[in-house]
């Protein structure tokens, strides 16, 4: 075991951490927006819209993320109207392609989690809110959504961990995040196990922090459980 | 454009089909290997040995916490040297080279095994202990109890979870394409590069993967129905 090499590789790996974090935070934030929209569409009551939203979820959950990334990065550039559009400066960049693919992927999974959580809100609570004179929108904003978000947190925690790991696939489209740097250094030094341990440890720490954050959010959102204990 | 997907001399249909077959082969072997690893991991977690508990815990935590791609790189770049040193320990002094298929199955199987461990552990724990006691009272030996009581019931409880693990495993095989094994993703990549029709080919790959996941979901549902045939529904 070459400890010196492991120690020396740390600064370079940490250098890739910023890109990894950008991909995680960016795609989770945008993915949450997509998920919110899609979950609402799936519950809209309009058959056509519901089928379209369900098809989106079906496709993105049923195919490997790598296919989705390649489809966006290599596939979209094939069409002339995309190359001529104002989006091309973004879609030309592997960075934005990775964010787009990760966003669409996590959006599909999260929308299912959110949909389940919204459906789990007891009907009586909505009725009570309506009886108090709240409009449908107000009841959704003040009653259904807060309860649903609290409900979905454990399942969403799993999705966050999956996304932390999924950002490593950005290395396949030339992005130099932690996995990309690890791969390049392995090819240069052939110190497979040392570099694997350093890179793996970085991801374990990231996932540890992510699970703590979700736990903290859960703790903050369930004050009624604390008071009793 | 569609003739590119045909089975003729100018089409990639035959190669895509071979790639799909290879993907299924890798996924099935890795899933089976994963269930083997998962059964060992679950028995380690349920054993009374502190050392086995810790080892199994480290295995599941680490493998589930780091990216799948890193695990595949680890075996791709490091698998042969480990195999060589293991062979050296048994008195063979030559280089052992693992082929891409073996590396893919080992890597995806180890990932799959970490998830299977948790599923199988949960399933074993949901078999009521009274049934084991009853079997013992009837005079069954440990192996007979395992074969006639524990395993069939565990399978019933584990099937939904194993269905999820299968989906993960099937999709993880796409990552094995970085080792240049000619599975669906790799063939698609080559075809997309050669024909300059990336959208067509990656789209086709997406459809093929969807087909595989849909068909296997249906198969798992049938298996669940047949495993639960003796159970009265609530």
TrEMBL record, chain A:
It comes from the Bacteria. GO terms for molecular function: transmembrane transporter activity. The keyword Zinc does not apply. The keyword Hydrolase does not apply. It is a multi-pass membrane protein. One of its GO terms (biological process) is amino acid transport. GO terms for cellular component: ATP-binding cassette (ABC) transporter complex. Coiled coil: none annotated. It is found in: Cell inner membrane; Cell membrane. Pfam families: BPD_transp_1 (PF00528). Residues 17-214 form the ABC transmembrane type-1 domain. The chain crosses the membrane at residues 20-41, 53-76, 160-178, 190-210. Keywords: Cell inner membrane, Cell membrane, Membrane, Transmembrane, Transmembrane helix, Transport. Belongs to the binding-protein-dependent transport system permease family. HisMQ subfamily. This is ABC transporter permease. It comes from Azospirillum humicireducens.
UniProtKB/TrEMBL annotation, chain B:
The keyword Transmembrane applies. It is a multi-pass membrane protein. The chain crosses the membrane at residues 20-42, 70-92, 199-220. InterPro entries: AA_ABC_transptr_permease_3TM, ABC_transp_permease_HisMQ, MetI-like, MetI-like_sf. Its main location: membrane. One of its GO terms (cellular component) is ATP-binding cassette (ABC) transporter complex. PROSITE patterns: ABC_TM1. SUPFAM superfamilies: MetI-like (SSF161098). One of its GO terms (molecular function) is transmembrane transporter activity. Residues 20-220 form the ABC transmembrane type-1 domain. It comes from the Bacteria. It is found in: Cell inner membrane; Cell membrane. Pfam families: BPD_transp_1. Gene3D superfamilies: MetI-like (1.10.3720.10). Keywords: Cell inner membrane, Cell membrane, Membrane, Transmembrane, Transmembrane helix, Transport. PANTHER family: CATIONIC AMINO ACID TRANSPORTER, MEMBRANE COMPONENT. Belongs to the binding-protein-dependent transport system permease family. HisMQ subfamily. This is ABC transporter permease. The lineage of its organism: Bacteria, Pseudomonadati, Pseudomonadota, Alphaproteobacteria, Rhodospirillales.
């Amino acid at each position: 075991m070459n400890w010196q090499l492991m120690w020396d590789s740390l600064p370079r790996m940490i250098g890739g951490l910023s890109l990894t974090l950008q991909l995680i935070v960016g795609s989770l934030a945008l993915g949450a927006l997509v998920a919110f929209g899609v979950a609402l569409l799936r519950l809209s009551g309009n058959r056509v819209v519901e089928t379209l939203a369900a098809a989106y979820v079906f496709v993105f959950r049923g195919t490997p993320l790598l296919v989705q990334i390649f489809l966006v990065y290599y596939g979209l550039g094939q069409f002339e109207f995309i190359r001529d559009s104002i989006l091309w400066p973004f879609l030309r960049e592997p960075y934005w392609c990775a964010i787009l693919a990760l966003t669409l992927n996590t959006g599909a999974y999260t929308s299912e989690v959110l949909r389940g959580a919204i459906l789990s809100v007891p009907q009586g609570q909505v009725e009570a809110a309506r009886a108090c004179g709240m409009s449908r929108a107000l009841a959704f904003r003040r009653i259904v959504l807060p309860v649903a978000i609290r409900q979905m947190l454990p399942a969403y925690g799993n999705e966050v961990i999956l996304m932390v790991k999924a950002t490593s696939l950005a290395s396949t489209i030339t992005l130099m995040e932690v996995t990309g740097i690890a791969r390049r250094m392995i090819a240069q030094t052939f110190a497979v196990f040392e570099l694997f341990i350093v890179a793996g440890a970085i991801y374990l720490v990231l996932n540890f922090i992510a699970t703590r954050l979700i736990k903290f959010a859960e703790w903050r959102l369930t004050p009624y459980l604390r008071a009793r204990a | 454009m569609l003739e590119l997907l045909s089975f003729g001399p100018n089409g990639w249909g035959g190669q895509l089909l071979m790639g799909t077959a290879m993907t299924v082969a890798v996924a099935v072997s890795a899933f089976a290997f994963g269930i083997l690893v998962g059964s060992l991991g679950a028995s380690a977690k349920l054993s009374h040995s502190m050392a086995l508990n810790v080892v199994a815990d480290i295995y599941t935590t680490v493998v589930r916490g780091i990216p799948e791609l890193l695990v595949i790189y680890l075996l791709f770049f490091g698998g042969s040297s480990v195999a060589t040193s293991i062979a050296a320990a048994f008195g063979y002094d030559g280089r052992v080279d693992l082929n891409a298929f073996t590396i893919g199955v080992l890597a995806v199987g180890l990932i799959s095994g970490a998830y299977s461990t948790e599923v199988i552990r949960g399933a074993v724990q949901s078999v009521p202990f009274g049934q084991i006691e009853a079997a013992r009272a009837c005079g069954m030996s440990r192996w007979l109890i395992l074969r006639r009581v524990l395993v069939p019931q565990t399978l019933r409880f584990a099937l939904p979870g194993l269905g999820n693990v299968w989906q993960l495993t099937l999709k993880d095989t796409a990552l094995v394409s970085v080792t240049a094994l000619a599975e669906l993703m790799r063939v698609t990549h080559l075809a997309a590069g050669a024909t300059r029709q990336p959208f067509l080919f990656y789209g086709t790959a997406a459809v093929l993967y969807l087909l595989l996941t849909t068909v296997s979901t249906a198969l798992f549902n049938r298996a669940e129905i047949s495993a639960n045939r003796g159970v009265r529904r609530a």
